[in-house]
Structures are given as structure tokens and as C-alpha cells.
């Protein structure tokens, strides 16, 4: 009891750290004696002290009497920190707190009832559903509204009928909560029950949101009407709801009922209102607005969506909107093209390329002669994407462009044209391969790769430039042709390590027994990255011969090679590979140990107890944390005693914090 007296004295100290350490000392005191000091600490002015008390109390597995005491703290009107701590503990106790909480749903204190309802909703135990349904009739409006909100949070279908019945009580704010709950539950309900409430200005938005979540095709007229509402928030809610409803309707016919209704808005003032909302910062709303504008197909939306393509974050959505607009959108962009500035023209060209608009060939040809590099590049890429063969000569001419980006665009365009016109692209590739310029020969590799021409790629593997050789090796490997193995084996002795890495990786992709012995020889390469590439390829090919070679290597490997060996072994099935990975736990390199822990954690928990004491007392703090996390994930609550012991002897503050966090998560 001397400890308790000291603790009580320290809890009155003006020093925050003294009070926090006093809480930690309570870990050695039985709960019956520690309870009152802990309750005091839960109301401390310092959040650090309160957090420590909450964590310790949760770890002590409170009995029924203690839980009742914690619930009693909810009525502490003059100490918000104490009430919040009580809420945190009760929520942390989860289902263990539910029976006691349910007895307080009739508490005389309406604030306590409100807290209890919210805590039950956060815990989400479905045994509390009947009591929460009864709470819909609570005489206090805040409690009944909280009951509705938390029924929605739990999402149990048993709540739908009582919520609909309560919707008829004509209390606006209560109805607001009910509509939100029905939206969260998402169970379909008759539309005609909801739509009358849309006449109330306050309820219009939640009704629309609810219809988007639970309505059917009958809700479409009201949602389309909402798109033209004078209140921006209602318009935006309607856009989100109609997209959500469209995604839920089964069958093309049902979806068309939405599309047809939206298409009829073309030329209306509704489009102006929706365009005015595009500056919203809510990504979900903006997504819905763009999609709705696309379905409407009004040409006025084409340019705003085009502007949106300038922003990388919006580009995908705007392209989707333009794609939905189809020919009308492309023609609107064509009409705007002459008056657009160069940047806008480049974006329009990109959009045409993305959407495959074939009516722009003449404009693309002219753009390839522009003085602006970005237009020349965009036109070359777009012509390739669309497949305009008549522009192949113009694209090829850009291979001599002074700007690197333009030359890149031309190669990309030709690569895309290769499947449709291989003879023409092969002729261009042959010319590039004979060029004295290294860059041109590198481009030849890319074109031959697009043509799948293994013979020409093999020739370029002998180029004088290592970059060309490496590209040719990689391109040849990508063909996945067994007859290419001999060429890749030859590249394993190239003077350039990057070429050898590409060859080793390529052999792993192609596979086959013919590649094993050359890869084993490459495990003695002077470059560690070549050894890593060979290891990965041997692992990919597999077999006892590969495993023998990897086992010999890990006896002498360290650093990145050792880590790669462990990662490779983890991808090989069988007890032998697992035993070899365990050797990593004995490494003097903490990074190797951490990798071994992570890899073994993916393969079950059989190894945990055998290595637990050694790894929880490892000399490196990061290893102790890594193992504690892995053990927690693998053993769940069974890890708690071991984590508690580790916490008691741990001196490092960082590790202590992590152990407490892990223990808190398990409670």
C-alpha cells in the first residue's frame, strides 16, 4: 500500500511527468485498489496523463463493478476530459461493455443516455439494436436523433422499418437524422414514402441523398429536378445521387432511363448551374458533376471539361466526361480549335488521341508542322493512338526533330501504328539501325520490339553502345521466346553490368532449365546487382538445383544480396525454403533480420514462439518493434501477455510507445 500512497501523492503533483509516471506505477497495483486513482488520472488536465490512464485501465480487463464506475463518470458535467476518457475506455471495451451500457439507456440523466447511445453505435454490437430502436421514442430529441444516427452507423436491416415509422412524426431534425440513417443502411425502400418530405426546404437535400442510396428508377424525376435547384448544395447532392442510382440500376434499359432524362436537359439553364459548381473542392461531387455533364452532352460543357484537363488531378474525370459526350463533344472541341491558344490546342489534340476522334487528320497534319514543340509531339502521339496511317510519313519526319520530346512522341506514334502497318514501320526501323547516332539505334530497338522482330534485336545486342545493347536485351526478353535464351546467356558476360542485369532478369522471365546453370555462374559476378538479378531469376525458375545454389550463396552473402536471397526464398514453396529464410533471423545486420521477420510473418505463426524471447530482447530497437508488430498481427490477443512483459522491461521510449499502441489495439 506504500506504492498506492506514493501514487496518490504524485497524482497531485504540479509536474505532468510525475503524474504520468504515477499512473504507470499503478500497473503493479491490483485493479480494486488502482481503480479510484485511475479515475482521478482520467480527469487530469494533461492529455498525456489521461491517455496513460485509459491505456492502463483497458489492459486491466475491468470487472462489472469497474465498468459501472466508468459509466458513472459520464455524468461529470464539469470535466469534459474525464467524460471523454470514460467514453474512450467504454468504446475500447467493445462488446464487454454492452450489457452494462444497455441498463443505462433509461438513465434519468439525458446526457448520459446520449453518451450511451453514441458509445453503443461506435461499438456496433448488433445485440444493442432492439434497445436503440426503443431509444427512437426517447422523450429527449437529442437522444432520439442520436439513436437514429447510430442505427444508421451500425447498418442493421432490422432498423429500417422502425426508422420509416418514425419518419412520420413530422419532426424536421429528427427526420433529418432518420434520412441520414436510411442512407447509410442502403436498404431499398418505397420511393413514395420519401419523396413527400422533399417539399421541406431543410429536408430536400437529405431526401435526395437518401434516394440516391435506396431509391429506384421512380426516383429519377425528382433527382433530375434537383439538378436545377436554386440551392447549390441541393444541385450537387442531386448530381451525386443520380450517378449513384445509375450505377445501382440493373440492366441497360434501366440505365437508359437516367441517360434519357439527362439528355433532355441539353440546352437548358440546368447546365449553367452544374457548370458553376465545377469549382467545388469536393472530389466526389466534382466526379459526379463531370459525369452528369457528360450524360447531358451539352456542347457548353466541352470547353470547361477541356480546361479541367489542364489539371492532372481532374484529367481522367474530364476525359471520361468528354468520352461520354461522344461525337458532340469532339465536334465542339473542333469548333473551338481555331481560336484556342497553343496550350489549349495541345490539350484538344491529346483529347482527340485519347478518345480516337478520326475527324481531325488534317488538323493533326498541320500541328506536326507547328513551331511549338508540344503541338508537334501531341499530334504525333495522337495520330498513332487514333491509327491515322496517312500521317506515318509526317510522323517519321519528326524523328529528326531538334527537340527530344518531339522525337519521343514520334517513336510512340510509330509504335502504335506498327500492328496496322508493319512493313512501313520496319523500313523506318532499318534506317534508324544503320544510323551513326546512338539515339537513333536505340529508337530502332523500340520499333523492332513493337514488331516482335527477335532477329533484328539480337543483332542490336552487339551494338557498340551499352545503352543500345541493354535495351535490345530487355526487348528480346520481353518477347518470351525460348530460342532467345542462347542470346541472353551470351549477354551475361557483357562488359557492362547493366547489360548483364538485363540478361539475368530476362532469363528468369523466359524460364526453362537451359537458363539455370548460366544463372548459377552469375551468382559469382563481381557486381552485387547482377547477383541479385540472377537470384530472382533462379527463384522464378525454381527447382532443387536453383535452391542448392541459393543455399550456398546465403552462407557468405550480406547486405542487399542477402536480403534478395531471403526474398527469393520466400517465393519458393516448401519447408526447405522456410528453414533457409529463418537463417536471416541470426544475421548481425538488423535490416536483414527485419526482412526475415516480415517474410516469415507472411507464412504463418509457427516460428513465433521459438524466436520470441530472442527477438523481443534484440539489441536493435527497430528489430524489437518489427517483431512485436508481426507477433501481434499473427497471434492477436494471445500476444498480449508477451507484449506486457516486454513493455515492463523495455527502456526505449519509442519501443514503449509502440508496445502500448499494439496493446491498446488488442483491447
Automatic annotation (TrEMBL):
<dbReference type="Pfam" id="PF13646">
    <property type="entry name" value="HEAT_2"/>
</dbReference>
<dbReference type="InterPro" id="IPR016024">
    <property type="entry name" value="ARM-type_fold"/>
</dbReference>
<dbReference type="InterPro" id="IPR011989">
    <property type="entry name" value="ARM-like"/>
</dbReference>
<protein>
    <submittedName>
        <fullName>HEAT-like repeat-containing protein</fullName>
    </submittedName>
</protein>
<dbReference type="InterPro" id="IPR004155">
    <property type="entry name" value="PBS_lyase_HEAT"/>
</dbReference>
<dbReference type="Pfam" id="PF03130">
    <property type="entry name" value="HEAT_PBS"/>
</dbReference>
<dbReference type="GO" id="GO:0016491">
    <property type="term" value="F:oxidoreductase activity"/>
</dbReference>
Amino acid at each position: 500500500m506504500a506504492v498506492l500512497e506514493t501514487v496518490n501523492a504524485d497524482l497531485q503533483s504540479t509536474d505532468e511527468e510525475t503524474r504520468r509516471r504515477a499512473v504507470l506505477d499503478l500497473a503493479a497495483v491490483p485493479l480494486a485498489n488502482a481503480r479510484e486513482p485511475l479515475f482521478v488520472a482520467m480527469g487530469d488536465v494533461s492529455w498525456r496523463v489521461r491517455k496513460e490512464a485509459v491505456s492502463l485501465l483497458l489492459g486491466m480487463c475491468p470487472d462489472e463493478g469497474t465498468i459501472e464506475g466508468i459509466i458513472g463518470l459520464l455524468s461529470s458535467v464539469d470535466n469534459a476530459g474525464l467524460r471523454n476518457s470514460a467514453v474512450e475506455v467504454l468504446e475500447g471495451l467493445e462488446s464487454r461493455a454492452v450489457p452494462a451500457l444497455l441498463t443505462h439507456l433509461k438513465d434519468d440523466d439525458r446526457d448520459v443516455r446520449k453518451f450511451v447511445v453514441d458509445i453503443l453505435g461506435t461499438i456496433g454490437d448488433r445485440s444493442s439494436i432492439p434497445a436503440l430502436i426503443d431509444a427512437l421514442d426517447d422523450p429527449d430529441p437529442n437522444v432520439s436523433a442520436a439513436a437514429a444516427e447510430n442505427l444508421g452507423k451500425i447498418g442493421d436491416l432490422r432498423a429500417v422499418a422502425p426508422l420509416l415509422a418514425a419518419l412520420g412524426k413530422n419532426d424536421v431534425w429528427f427526420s433529418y437524422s432518420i434520412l441520414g440513417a436510411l442512407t447509410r443502411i442502403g436498404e431499398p425502400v418505397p420511393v413514395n414514402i420519401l419523396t413527400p418530405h422533399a417539399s421541406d426546404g431543410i429536408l430536400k437535400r437529405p431526401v435526395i441523398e437518401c434516394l440516391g442510396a435506396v431509391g429506384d428508377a421512380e426516383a429519377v424525376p425528382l433527382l433530375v429536378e434537383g439538378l436545377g435547384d436554386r440551392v447549390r448544395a441541393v444541385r450537387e447532392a442531386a448530381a451525386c445521387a443520380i450517378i449513384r442510382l445509375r450505377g445501382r440500376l440493373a440492366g441497360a434499359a434501366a440505365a437508359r432511363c437516367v441517360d434519357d432524362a439527362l439528355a433532355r436537359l441539353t440546352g437548358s439553364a440546368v447546365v449553367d448551374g452544374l457548370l458553376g459548381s465545377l469549382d467545388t473542392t469536393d472530389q466526389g461531387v466534382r466526379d459526379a458533376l463531370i459525369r452528369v455533364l457528360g450524360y447531358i452532352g451539352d456542347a457548353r460543357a466541352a470547353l470547361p471539361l477541356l480546361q479541367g484537363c489542364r489539371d492532372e488531378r481532374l484529367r481522367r474525370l474530364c476525359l471520361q466526361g468528354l468520352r461520354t459526350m461522344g461525337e458532340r463533344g469532339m465536334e465542339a472541341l473542333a469548333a473551338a480549335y481555331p481560336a484556342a491558344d497553343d496550350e489549349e490546342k495541345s490539350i484538344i489534340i491529346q483529347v482527340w488521341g485519347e478518345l480516337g476522334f478520326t475527324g481531325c487528320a488534317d488538323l493533326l497534319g498541320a500541328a506536326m508542322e507547328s513551331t511549338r514543340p508540344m503541338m508537334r509531339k501531341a499530334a504525333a502521339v495522337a495520330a498513332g493512338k487514333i491509327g491515322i496511317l496517312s500521317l506515318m510519313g509526317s510522323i517519321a519526319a519528326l524523328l529528326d526533330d531538334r527537340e527530344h520530346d518531339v522525337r519521343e512522341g514520334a517513336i510512340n506514334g510509330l509504335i502504335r501504328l506498327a500492328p496496322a502497318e508493319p512493313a512501313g514501320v520496319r523500313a523506318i526501323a532499318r534506317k534508324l539501325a544503320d544510323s551513326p547516332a546512338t539515339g537513333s539505334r536505340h529508337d530502332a530497338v523500340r520499333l523492332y520490339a513493337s514488331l516482335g522482330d527477335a532477329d533484328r534485336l539480337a543483332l542490336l545486342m552487339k551494338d557498340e553502345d551499352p545503352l543500345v545493347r541493354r535495351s535490345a536485351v530487355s526487348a528480346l526478353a520481353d518477347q518470351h521466346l525460348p530460342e532467345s535464351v542462347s542470346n541472353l546467356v551470351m549477354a551475361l558476360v557483357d562488359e557492362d553490368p547493366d547489360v548483364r542485369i538485363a540478361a539475368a532478369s530476362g532469363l528468369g522471365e523466359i524460364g526453362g532449365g537451359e537458363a539455370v546453370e548460366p544463372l548459377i555462374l552469375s551468382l559469382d559476378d563481381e557486381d552485387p546487382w547482377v547477383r541479385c538479378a540472377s537470384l530472382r531469376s533462379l527463384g522464378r525458375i525454381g527447382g532443387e538445383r536453383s535452391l542448392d545454389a541459393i543455399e550456398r550463396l546465403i552462407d557468405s552473402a550480406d547486405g542487399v544480396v542477402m536480403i534478395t536471397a531471403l526474398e527469393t526464398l520466400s517465393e519458393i514453396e516448401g519447408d526447405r525454403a522456410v528453414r533457409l529464410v529463418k537463417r536471416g533471423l541470426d544475421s548481425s545486420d538488423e535490416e536483414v533480420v527485419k526482412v526475415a521477420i516480415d517474410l516469415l510473418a507472411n507464412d504463418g505463426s509457427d516460428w513465433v514462439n521459438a524466436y520470441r524471447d530472442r527477438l523481443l530482447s534484440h539489441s536493435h530497437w527497430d528489430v524489437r518493434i518489427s517483431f512485436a508488430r508481426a507477433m501481434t498481427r499473427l497471434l492477436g490477443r494471445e500476444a498480449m501477455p508477451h507484449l506486457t512483459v516486454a513493455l515492463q522491461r523495455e527502456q526505449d521510449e519509442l519501443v514503449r510507445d509502440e508496445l502500448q499502441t499494439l496493446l491498446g489495439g488488442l483491447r
